[in-house]
Design goal:
By secondary structure, this protein is an alpha+beta fold. The protein has helices at residues 3-24, 90-125, 131-164, 212-224; strands spanning 30-35, 37-59, 65-70, 77-78, 83-87, 166-168, 173-175, 185-186, 196-211, 238-240, 252-256, 266-274, 285-302, 307-309, 312-318, 324-335, 338-343, 350-353, 366-369. The radius of gyration is 43 Å and the shape is elongated.
Length: 381
């Protein structure tokens, strides 16, 4: 019985030593590593733009009056010359009647004046009437001719106004929702609100602003590569729609505004896209995407592999002894999920994606190779 406690104590002591040795042995952690890539990287920039029809024509009334009929279906395609609205023409018809009466009266006076002139001329040649009488007859006849011309012009204007009571579409396109209904009073010309808008959408315009600094960069780069001017019309342009899908057609930049907007410091560009399937409509907000830069043989690493501490950027590089060594790098532009490394790293070196984990360079790790796609939209494969 006396030996049992000693044996028990000895067992406990030896067991405690074994646990201490086990606890002292560090576990080798798994660490994801990727190879630094090297490739020519096109850089794409996104700009927010708004869509417009290739032609957006406001429909206005050239006369004031009440709308008496509408001859289209809202939201549908209308043809050039198709009747859209009819404005009350009773006042115009009354003006035509009055103009026709004035013309008839003026013609009657002209006929009478011509008859008087025809009587005076032979009598003047026979000295039965004076030259003064002839001059008066000629003047009266000329005055009545002018009155006839004025009456004819007034009648033509009245008939033109009658034509304005029938408002037709100036282009073929999709018509919008009407801002007036039958019975509404409309005001003539620019003073009145547009009745509607017709948009030709077989092609679409997309206008978007770029910063002045970007404009200057485009100009300088174009000159560096020997191009004339600052044209980027040959650059393919893509659209990203509101649901983050890419529009099927590729567009082109066809114009730039004449000036920098002094309020925003930006220059407005316009791109044109075919829209045969009518997917685009005026007023959509879209992303305009095109290549703005290219880096030759750039060294790239995932953004998640780069650690930043104030102005210092570093990566953990896997060494031959399976230990991770910190290395300071000089980062360049961000491209998608990647970061271009200007100096401090070579292609093919393996860098760790450690996240917020604490790394001790004195202890080895178990590297787990990851495949990584170094394109502009790379994701972990």
């Amino acid at each position: 019985m006396g030996l049992f406690p000693i044996a028990l104590v000895s067992a406990v002591v030896f067991s405690g030593c074994k646990d201490e040795k086990t606890a002292a042995a560090p576990m080798i952690p798994d660490v994801n590593v990727v190879e630094a890539g090297q490739m020519t990287v096109p850089v794409y920039s996104d700009y927010v733009g708004e869509t417009y029809g290739i032609s957006d024509v406001n429909i206005r009334s050239r006369l004031s009056g009440y709308v008496v009929s509408m001859h289209f279906k809202e939201g549908q395609t209308v043809q050039k010359g198709q009747l859209l609205y009819v404005v009350d023409d009773r006042n115009i018809q009354a003006n035509i009647d009055a103009a026709e009466a004035r013309l008839a009266e003026a013609k009657t006076y002209m006929v009478r004046a011509k008859a008087d002139l025809d009587r005076v001329e032979p009598l003047t040649r026979m000295n039965a009437l004076s030259q003064r009488d002839l001059d008066a007859a000629v003047a009266t006849y000329n005055a009545t001719r002018a009155q006839v011309s004025a009456a004819e012009a007034a009648l033509r204007n009245a008939k033109i106004d009658l034509g304005f009571t029938r408002i037709t579409s100036p282009i073929t396109g999709v018509i919008g929702l009407s801002k007036v209904l039958v019975g509404d009073f409309v005001t003539q010309g620019a003073m009145g609100e547009p009745l509607n808008t017709v948009s030709a959408i077989g092609e679409m315009r997309v206008r978007f602003p770029i910063a002045e600094a970007e404009y200057l960069r485009f100009v300088k780069k174009a000159r560096e590569v020997g191009k004339t001017g600052a044209s980027i019309a040959s650059v393919p342009v893509k659209l990203v729609l509101g649901d983050n899908t890419e529009f099927s057609e590729t567009g082109r930049i066809d114009l730039a505004n004449r000036q920098i907007d002094p309020e925003t410091g930006s220059l407005t560009l316009q791109a044109v896209f075919k829209n045969d399937d009518r997917l685009l409509r005026p007023g959509q907000y879209v992303k305009v995407r095109f290549q703005t830069e290219e880096y030759k043989d750039a060294i790239m690493v995932p953004q998640s592999a780069v650690n930043q501490l104030q102005s210092i950027y570093q990566v953990f590089v896997l060494g031959d002894s399976s230990k991770l060594q910190p290395r300071v790098i000089k980062p360049g532009a961000r491209v998608g999920s990647n970061w271009i490394v200007e100096s401090g790293l070579q292609a093919g070196e393996k860098v760790a994606i450690v996240g917020s984990a604490a790394i001790n360079p004195k202890f080895p790790v178990k590297p787990v190779a990851m495949n990584w796609n170094y394109d502009s939209t790379s994701r972990n494969q």
